[in-house]
Automatic annotation (TrEMBL):
<dbReference type="InterPro" id="IPR016066">
    <property type="entry name" value="A-D-PHexomutase_CS"/>
</dbReference>
<protein>
    <submittedName>
        <fullName>Phospho-sugar mutase</fullName>
        <ecNumber>5.4.2.-</ecNumber>
    </submittedName>
</protein>
<dbReference type="InterPro" id="IPR005846">
    <property type="entry name" value="A-D-PHexomutase_a/b/a-III"/>
</dbReference>
<dbReference type="InterPro" id="IPR005841">
    <property type="entry name" value="Alpha-D-phosphohexomutase_SF"/>
</dbReference>
<dbReference type="InterPro" id="IPR036900">
    <property type="entry name" value="A-D-PHexomutase_C_sf"/>
</dbReference>
<dbReference type="InterPro" id="IPR005844">
    <property type="entry name" value="A-D-PHexomutase_a/b/a-I"/>
</dbReference>
<keyword id="KW-0479">Metal-binding</keyword>
<feature type="domain" description="Alpha-D-phosphohexomutase alpha/beta/alpha">
    <location>
        <begin position="317"/>
        <end position="436"/>
    </location>
</feature>
<keyword id="KW-0460">Magnesium</keyword>
<dbReference type="InterPro" id="IPR005845">
    <property type="entry name" value="A-D-PHexomutase_a/b/a-II"/>
</dbReference>
<keyword id="KW-0413">Isomerase</keyword>
<feature type="domain" description="Alpha-D-phosphohexomutase alpha/beta/alpha">
    <location>
        <begin position="43"/>
        <end position="180"/>
    </location>
</feature>
<dbReference type="Pfam" id="PF02878">
    <property type="entry name" value="PGM_PMM_I"/>
</dbReference>
<dbReference type="Pfam" id="PF02879">
    <property type="entry name" value="PGM_PMM_II"/>
</dbReference>
<comment type="similarity">
    <text>Belongs to the phosphohexose mutase family.</text>
</comment>
<dbReference type="InterPro" id="IPR016055">
    <property type="entry name" value="A-D-PHexomutase_a/b/a-I/II/III"/>
</dbReference>
<dbReference type="Pfam" id="PF02880">
    <property type="entry name" value="PGM_PMM_III"/>
</dbReference>
Amino acid sequence: MDNFLDTAKSWMTDFFDPAVKKEIQHLMDTDTEELKDRFYKQMEFGTGGMRGIMGVGTNRINKYTLGKSTQGLSNYLNKVYKDEEIKVVIAFDCRHNSNTLARIVAEVFSANGIKVFLFSDLRTTPELSFAVRHLNCHAGIVLTASHNPPEYNGYKVYWTDGGQIVPPQDAEIIAEINALPFEDVKFKANEDLIEVTDKEVDEAFIQASVANGNFNARGKDDFKIVFTSLHGTSITAIPEVLKRAGYTNVTVIAEQAEPDGNFPTVKSPNPEEPEALSMAIKKAEEIGADMVVGTDPDSDRLGIAVRNLEGKMEIVNGNQAMVLMTKFLLEKRKQQGFKGNEFIATTIVSTPMMEAMAKTYGVEFKTALTGFKWIGKMIKDFPNSDFIGGGEESFGYMVGDFVRDKDAVTSTLLACEIASEAKANGSSFYKDLIDCYVDYGFYKEHLVAITKKGISGAEEIKEMLKDFKENPVASVAGSKVKWVEDYNTSTAKNVLTGEEKAIDIPKSNVLIYETEDGTRVAARPSGTEPKVKFYISTNTTLDNATDYKKVAVELDKKIQRILSELKLG
């Protein structure tokens, strides 16, 4: 947007608050670069909805950008469901301004004749997804920026099925939003259409979480858990869910239990970052706990630490947790008897081990683009299929289909069930994971995330991905590249034979190289942060669990070689 100055000036009319105009004038006088960053583009929907830094401007989260999005969504709902009483439900997390922004969003919906259920206080994202269907709503909104830094906030839109918006609704809604001038936003509330909700939905969600995540595992009285909500929303649900499922030895990290948008005790409230769980792991070592669980601010991601072969707490990554959760669910379903319509799912940048497991159990395996909205879409698109469970490498998992997004509440319970039962059987979560490597192949993954902020950062990310595509890799760690999967063009090409196959997944800026030995390297920009991500997956056979450490070292060396070759290390 070259005319950022004109766009900024358009916010100087009487429609905008005096404080907003004052700030814009100050930036015009003192900081043109900052003004440009705030107004050079409109904030867009990505894999996690609309997410960005809070502040004044079209490229910021504020009253007006969220108001415009809500007005566009209201227009769309009123077109599509013109003969119905339209209902939406709104939740918000612990972030700065989330409660205020949620109220503004509710007011805009109500001003457009739409009935609103507004949670009285912060709630988890999975509860919002659940609430859409529980309250028979047409849409849902959650105000959250997930695990992003404190200066961020965001706006995720859910549809009638409880899943995030996907094609064609997303493009149609965006078109409605983009066609609007800010002055068309109706901010004057119809209070008669706003209903505050809490306990009734809370109780239904907690009951559903226990019903889906509790498998009556043995050994609960002898199983010690350390839990941290990392200052986020999961404190409203996880302790109660664990209690109702029979876990009595749960230690909550008090210093991180109070919801706080500053996230004062962690560098990042992201359980993917090892530092985020350090306080909980320290407590676990002190009291001899069996498992640590920590969740991100809106409680859709969970980090897990368990005791390794030496008895020390070790964080398992998202791929590892996903594999063991899926194996457990498949085994329980197998005991009941498969009906032949079951499937599990993951994303194109997650571990290929999920497919190997699906083949062994004889269930269907589906892959999707990154982002749980695509897994939710699978459930919607295949109503006669039975979704058992699935996840992605970025520490997200979904148990069954009663929630249609990452659900750290139910997944936390499931993880505890797995570990408690394993301990009662004389094994452990970690040992059960190694047994999976023996059964399905030893897959080891590594993620490199490179942050590039601002306008120049966006260009750098674009160039890095362009270079990765235009200067193709011929081999990786001594193994020839066999397949190049380009999700921008929806084609997979065997570079050794010339064979081409169509990729039946929506287009996306993702490129994946796969070698003859099954090594995979994928690159994509983050949909929610100013990052470019590289995903590396290696694998080999593990003939015996006793060889685990030796083979793990070999795979680690291979990953380091790949990082060096691709200049990522």
